UniProtKB/TrEMBL annotation:
Gene3D superfamilies: PK beta-barrel domain-like. Residues 22-172 form the MOSC domain. It comes from the Bacteria. Signal peptide: none annotated. This is MOSC domain-containing protein. Pfam families: MOSC (PF03473). GO terms for molecular function: catalytic activity; molybdenum ion binding; pyridoxal phosphate binding. InterPro entries: MoCF_Sase_C, MOSC_domain, Pyrv_Knase-like_insert_dom_sf.
């Protein structure tokens, strides 16, 4: 094992159309209370089609999708051709265990932007449409048999700013008691 990697933004992505994958960008702008400027999932209320159909007035707890690059390493090792942006995340990170962070954790991204983690991304059948068997590869079981969702975390923007590859990530934990992330 090598030296621990300081938490960093590896890549940023956005898309202005409702599709599965997002496109690499040199930088993205986060807008407070809104999400990624120009991204189809940005907004104060839910933007994901299935959620809009259920309750279009629900708050958007999924303004920004973050995924750890270590998952891509694992998936490639398992034989999948999947790379940053392919699974629809806005921000690909390296050197931070996103899934282990408690709900309410804030991440400072670069010099200005900040997001608050609201919960886990719940993998859906679209992942299998992208590559057969990929959904199962993004799920696991813990020692107690509980389901582990590995497809990243969702967040809301608490402070706007520019985010780009190479930006440092600072973890700001909430006050205890800490609560495990749940799907949102």
């Amino acid at each position: 094992m090598g030296e621990p990697v300081a938490p960093r933004v590896l890549a940023v992505h956005a898309s202005d159309v409702h599709g599965f994958s997002k496109f690499a960008e040199p930088a993205i702008r986060l807008l407070e209370g809104w999400g990624v400027a120009g991204d189809t999932h940005a907004g104060r209320t839910v933007q994901h089609r299935s959620r809009v159909a259920r309750n279009p007035d629900a708050p958007n707890l999924r303004q920004v999708h973050l995924m750890h690059a270590e998952l891509f390493d694992e998936l490639v090792h398992a034989g999948f051709a999947v790379f940053p942006g392919d699974l629809g995340e806005n921000i690909t990170t390296r050197g931070i265990d996103l899934l282990a962070l408690p709900a309410g954790t804030r991440l400072r991204l670069g010099a200005e932007a900040e997001v608050e983690i609201t919960g886990l991304r719940n993998p859906c059948v679209q992942i299998d449409r992208f590559q057969k068997g990929l959904m199962a590869a993004t799920l696991a079981r813990d020692a107690d048999g509980g389901l582990v969702r590995k497809a990243g975390v969702m967040a809301v923007v608490t402070r706007g700013g520019l985010v780009q590859a190479g930006d440092a990530i600072t973890v700001l934990l909430p006050l205890p008691p800490h609560h495990a992330l749940e799907p949102v």
